[in-house]
């Protein structure tokens, strides 16, 4: 590992202040990069303080002059009021009824550019835009217009913005205290390519535009009018306009940003095209400054199940594999509980930060399909808690309400509820963390079973809903609502049963054998004798190395 300069070390400490709260991952898939021609984006809301629930706003019409209260998404702090739109659209989670979907990752950036007087934070910006947008381009226009008019409250942010035809990445940061507007760039991901971002600004150079032609299909780049001039004036960038890099100016990269953030992008890209990503493995480890491209061409078409599995990645089978060092413990757990950095003998060390992580509140894989009516074409595959041990449940864009098990108000982060999917999934995942390499196999088996079924069901539901939609759109939307609500409750019930099964199977460190989910009994009907699987040979060797002869079996000394 290269020695950090004093300046880089100081920046890493500042940057780390943002990480425990906001550390998310987005994967972006364009139409011709996907198996079925759908566009997709994924998102993991990885906050230690966020409860996993499915947000819902019904469509509404408002009187002239109506105002909207804005509360910061992370804390609930009241920020102020803005003008309400005359018409809003229904929103399920982070997807609206027109299949517009928005995700985010926080990169923080230059701390002095945060505006505490701004009225709109990044979370409110997402959900307000979803209620007002019919396309991804319109969402970009609305989001940037809102911060121009009311001011941007949060730190630097990367947004994934997509509809059924286009996929965009937009990076945005404020201008400082008391200054409305923001510095921002939005780039369309070329069709046939994939992208990703994970808490580090990734847009470097781009093609400057004379004006933002939001309605021009040929326009592939938008940006704030003074994004270069502002950076030049502040001393963030020296050089010609053609060489200007948004990331280098507003969120300079350092070792921490590479190892905790860009490494996740590398891992996602590596899964989709390992041949190309072999050139960047040194960068992912913090040993090179050879930055990855903003987007790559995958070596095969990507399905929604592929994206789900990318969201479950822990760097398996790479140089960053989290199951291969002493921190994985006796059961190969690919998790390291916080804090992210720690000290031994005045030296600072760190834990890897993988895509899948224990502190996820909710995650999604959004699938947008332009060959179906938008109410049917949009499937918001929604999961709660750790992505590695969740089940992604299909929520259709045209739903009229959400399942009780994931509804807002059904429990919270400090209030347990057996009816809430978040708490049921959290119960199961927390069991698994104690004996991971055993329990994760049981979890994956049920996870695959449920997601296989749900994927197959949606094929039939699409067809039935389309036929019904042609005759009665309202009835079709109710049909979709009933399907999604019923399946979510079924999944949650099945996961509760899985938790009970795991508790019995691995009770007290034992292993009770089973076959097809039925525990074995002896010829008298009593439980079969428990097995004692013990630990791995590597773990036993580490115990011997640490304990020496203290634990070695030996003869008692002879009596004198």
Description:
The chain has two domains: 6-350, no CATH class; 372-509, no CATH class. Helix 2 packs across helix 3 (136-150) and helix 11 runs parallel beside helix 13 (473-505). The chain is globular. It has a seven-stranded antiparallel beta sheet with strand order 16-14-1-2-19-20-21. The N and C termini lie far apart (58 Å). Helices cover 32% and strands 18% of the residues. The protein is α+β, with helices and mostly antiparallel strands and 560 residues long.
Summarize the structure.
The chain is α+β, with helices and mostly antiparallel strands and 560 residues long.
Task: Considering the chains and any ligands shown, give keywords for the structure.
2 domains; five-stranded antiparallel beta sheet; 560 residues; 14 helices; alpha+beta; seven-stranded antiparallel beta sheet; globular; disordered N terminus
List the helices and strands and how they pair.
Layout: H1 6-16, E1 26-29, E2 39-45, E3 56-57, E4 60-61, E5 67-71, E6 78-83, E7 87-88, E8 91-92, E9 95-96, E10 101-108, H2 122-132, H3 136-150, E11 156-162, E12 167-173, E13 183-188, E14 194-197, E15 221-223, H4 227-234, H5 246-250, H6 255-272, H7 274-277, H8 281-284, E16 295-296, H9 304-310, E17 341-344, E18 347-350, E19 362-368, H10 374-377, E20 379-384, E21 393-396, H11 421-432, H12 436-471, H13 473-505, E22 514-515, E23 518-519, H14 537-547
Antiparallel strand pairs: 1-2, 1-14, 2-19, 3-8, 4-7, 5-6, 8-9, 10-11, 11-12, 12-13, 13-15, 14-16, 17-18, 19-20, 20-21, 22-23
Proportion of residues in extended strands = 15-25%
Backbone structural class = alpha+beta
Largest sheet report: 7 strands, antiparallel
Percent range for helical residues? 25-40%
Oligomer: single chain
Terminal CA distance: 58 Å
Instruction: List segments where confidence is low: pLDDT < 50 over at least 5 consecutive residues.
Output: 1-21
């Amino acid at each position: 590992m290269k020695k950090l300069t004093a300046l880089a070390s100081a920046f890493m400490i500042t940057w780390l202040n943002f990480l425990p709260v906001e550390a998310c991952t987005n994967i972006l898939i364009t139409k011709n990069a996907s198996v079925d021609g759908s566009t997709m984006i994924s998102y993991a809301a990885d906050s230690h303080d966020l409860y996993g629930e499915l947000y819902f706003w019904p469509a509404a019409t408002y009187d002239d002059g109506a105002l909207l209260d804005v509360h910061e998404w992370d804390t609930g702090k009241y920020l102020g009021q803005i003008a309400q739109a005359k018409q809003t659209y229904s929103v399920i989670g982070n997807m609206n009824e027109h299949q517009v979907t928005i995700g985010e990752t926080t990169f923080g950036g230059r701390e002095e550019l945060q505006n505490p007087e701004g009225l709109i934070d990044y979370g409110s910006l997402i959900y307000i835009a979803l209620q007002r947008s019919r396309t991804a381009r319109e969402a970009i226009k609305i989001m940037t217009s809102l911060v121009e008019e009311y001011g941007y409250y949060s730190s630097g942010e990367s947004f994934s913005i997509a509809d059924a035809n286009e996929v965009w990445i937009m990076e945005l940061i404020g201008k400082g205290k008391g200054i409305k507007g923001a510095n921002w760039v939005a780039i369309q991901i070329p069709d046939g390519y994939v992208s990703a971002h994970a808490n580090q600004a990734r847009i470097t150079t781009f093609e400057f535009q004379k004006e933002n032609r939001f309605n021009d299909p040929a326009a592939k780049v938008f940006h704030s009018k003074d994004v270069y001039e502002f950076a030049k004036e502040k001393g963030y960038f020296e050089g010609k306009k053609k060489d200007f890099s948004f990331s280098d100016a507003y969120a300079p990269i350092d070792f921490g940003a590479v190892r905790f953030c860009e490494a996740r992008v590398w891992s996602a890209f590596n899964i989709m095209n390992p041949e190309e990503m072999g050139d960047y493995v040194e960068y992912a480890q913090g040993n090179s400054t050879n930055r990855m491209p903003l987007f790559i061409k995958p070596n095969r078409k990507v399905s929604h199940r592929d994206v789900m599995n990318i969201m479950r990645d822990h760097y398996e089978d790479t140089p960053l594999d989290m199951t291969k060092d002493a921190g994985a413990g006796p059961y190969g757990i690919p998790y390291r509980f916080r804090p992210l950095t720690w000290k031994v003998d005045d030296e600072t060390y760190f834990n890897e930060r993988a895509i899948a992580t224990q502190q996820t509140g909710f995650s999604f894989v959004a699938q947008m399909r332009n060959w179906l009516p938008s109410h049917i074409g949009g499937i918001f595959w929604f999961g709660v808690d750790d992505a590695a041990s969740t089940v992604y449940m299909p929520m259709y864009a045209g739903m009229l309400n959400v399942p009780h098990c994931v509804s807002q108000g059904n429990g919270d982060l400090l209030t347990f509820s057996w009816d809430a999917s978040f708490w049921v999934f959290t119960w199961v995942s927390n069991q698994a963390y104690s004996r991971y390499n055993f329990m994760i196999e049981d979890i994956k088996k049920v996870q695959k079973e449920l997601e296989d079924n749900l994927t197959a069901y949606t094929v039939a539901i699409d067809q039935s809903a389309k036929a019904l939609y042609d005759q009665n759109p309202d009835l079709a939307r109710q049909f979709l609502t009933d399907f999604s609500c019923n399946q979510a409750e079924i999944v949650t019930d099945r996961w509760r049963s899985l938790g009970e099964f795991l508790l019995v199977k691995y009770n007290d460190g034992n292993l009770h054998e089973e076959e097809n989910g039925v525990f074995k009994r002896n010829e008298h009907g009593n439980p079969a004798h428990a097995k004692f699987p013990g630990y791995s040979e590597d773990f036993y060797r580490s115990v011997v190395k640490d304990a020496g002869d203290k634990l070695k079996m030996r003869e008692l000394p002879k009596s004198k």
